[in-house]
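Hey team,

Sharing the Pilus assembly protein TadB run so nobody has to redo it. Sequence (310 residues) first:
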Amino acid sequence: MTGAFGGAVLGAVAGLGLMLVAVRVRALRRVDLRVRVLPYLRDVRRVEMRVGGASRGLAGSLAGPALAAAAARLESVLGGAATVRRRTERAGLPGTVADFRVEQVVWGLVGFALAAAYSLLESLKGATTGDVVPLLLICALGFAGGVVLRDQRLTAQVRRRERAVLVEFPAVAELLALAVAAGEGPVAALTRVVARSSGALADELGHVLAAVRTGTPVSTAFDELAARTGVPLVARFAEGIAVAVERGTPLADILHAQAADVREAGRRELIESAARREVLMMVPVVFLVLPVTVVFALWPGAAGLTLMTP
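Structure output:
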């Protein structure tokens, strides 16, 4: 290890230590209101202190304010808080927009760390001064890649939850229809189904039931479900229940029809998926099986011609 490299490492460690001390001092100067009030409230369940989505432990106390500030800066640059809030609700995530931005910052820092490690290895190989700018660009791209990757993962979580809702919908709708046909009201049927089922759709209906129990009308709660969900079939189901409750139409028939529509839509999607994958199924046949068959058919003849040639 050369003297310059050792000095750079020691300087980086000293700078990081000073930065952690400054962040800690800044965090201690701003005591959270919950920290001062909750110890005197015996009837309130202890909750985990969080600052911008970061735990208020040792690491959270040091990095929490910095992550919150970075998340706020990222939100000011990217924007779209309403879209992120809607996507987190559709994905069933309990956090807020600030928590998601903090996760994006953490993912970005991980990407930056990986890019910085690669840049450090390249610099140790003897990179010149002109190569510093591309390495810095790689580090910036690593941070941006981490942020974008977290956003793409949120999109994947939304799609996975919506697929789970579609899979669970027919069974839940049939259970609601059976409970209503047995003489129970909409709220009692919803309570029975939510208590005996689990999954993404059961969680959504649990939110509806909680809203109803806090005084929200049944039709309004289902209208909110229709506005919150990103699945058109579930939105139509919620709107149908809201209209049935308001107008007094038979609810069991509507639920049976909704379940049949979802099953038919799933069957149609399966047929369309099979039609799209038919071309992909031909790829191994054309590029693997057919060439091997041709070789086995032509090779004996070609070998015989080679042996018979004087």
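DSSP finds eleven helices and two strands in the chain.

Ping me if you want the raw files.
A.
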